[in-house]
Amino acid sequence: MPDWTRYVAERLVDSKLAPEEQHEVVAEIAEHLEEGYIQLQRDGHSDAEQQMLAQVSDWGALCRNIRRSKEDPMNVARRVVLPGIVAAIVAFAVLRLFVYLLITPEGCAPIHDTVLLNNSACLTVSADGPAYLPWLLTLPLAGALAATLARWQGARAAQRLIAAVSPAIYLSAEMLVMSVLDNFYWRIPIFWVIIPAIACAIGALPFLGDRRDPLETRPVATAHS
Amino acid sequence: MSKSPSVSPQIKRGSAELAVLAVLAEGPLHGYEIAKRIREHTGGVITFDVAALYPVLYSMETRGWVEASWEETPSGRRRRCYRLTTDGKRRLRPLRQEWREFFQALNRLARLSDA
Asked: Greatest CA separation found in chain B?
């Protein structure tokens, strides 16, 4: 008797589905092939295995079709957007806290590598200022939080990473607006987008791996009646 | 699995939703049984292999037309059973009507061209 679970798992290993989903798909398709194989054998077909193998001629196409059929806009919202928003809220709240604790409002000056955080035009936050580095050091936590939430929702590794760097994505939008309204300064995207994105991604790293081995089999999936 | 005359993949793809929803209207079924029922009900003219069936089932599940749950048989096998949801039943009615009208139109056309 072929090990259908292993056979299917090896061919769907690049399905890019979330681990839980992939595990379910592997178990279900393996069960289907196994049941068909047993039935064909009962009916006296000597080529039962070949007939079942012929059920899927292109596993790559099946992977793509399954992935496409499971894509739901609400899933993207749940797996990427919501964890990203949570991470961004945490990151910006922490930045505000550090600004409140560490920066004293001063007289207005046109500093261009600056993010304005409230209505006070005189409160400036520069990458050279005292709040930037402490904030940067907390960003891995925001990234880790987003990646954890995304993984909990069944997100793939790439989706978890996007969710984790969301604070930097939101900052990049703000920087873009500032560049349009004002002049472009190279320091702004480096200090307020790229470096924060790296910090968030570092925090997400431990949570990008899969919890479950796709080849892991459920005992019932290989048991035969 | 049988060698009965089969329809082209294009026609099969178009009729997949109707075929799956129609057999699930009879009661909850797992994937293998869905494929088997479709083959039996159509005299082997319409067949769904693994590659054709599961993307259709997953797509219907995503759209909320069917729901699936793992169930264990008395022999200890675990199967993912699909059942129609209210949305699925709602979808089946106009779909049946649509296909009925389509075949009536094709019949009329065929009679005209035979004459």
From this structure: 59
Q: Tell me which residue in A27, A36, A61 faces B32 most closely, judged by beta carbons.
A: A36
Give pTM, 2 decimals: 0.60
Q: In this structure, what are the phi and psi dihedrals at residue A54, rounded to the nearest 5 degrees?
A: -75, -5
Could you say which DSSP state residue A112 is in? S
For A111-142, b where at least 16 C-beta lie within 10 A, e where not — what string? eebbbebeeeeebbbbbebebbeebbebbbbb
Residue B1 to residue A33, Cβ atoms within 8 A: no
Give tens-digit pLDDT for B1-57. 444 556 666 666 668 889 999 999 999 999 999 999 999 999 988 889 999 999 999
Q: Does A53 touch chain B (CB under 8 A)?
A: no
pLDDT in tens, A123-174: 566 777 788 899 999 999 999 999 999 988 878 888 899 999 999 999 888 8
Rounded-to-integer distance, Cα B28 and Cα B86, Å: 13
ipTM, two decimals, is: 0.84
Whether A33 contacts A48, CB under 8 Å: no
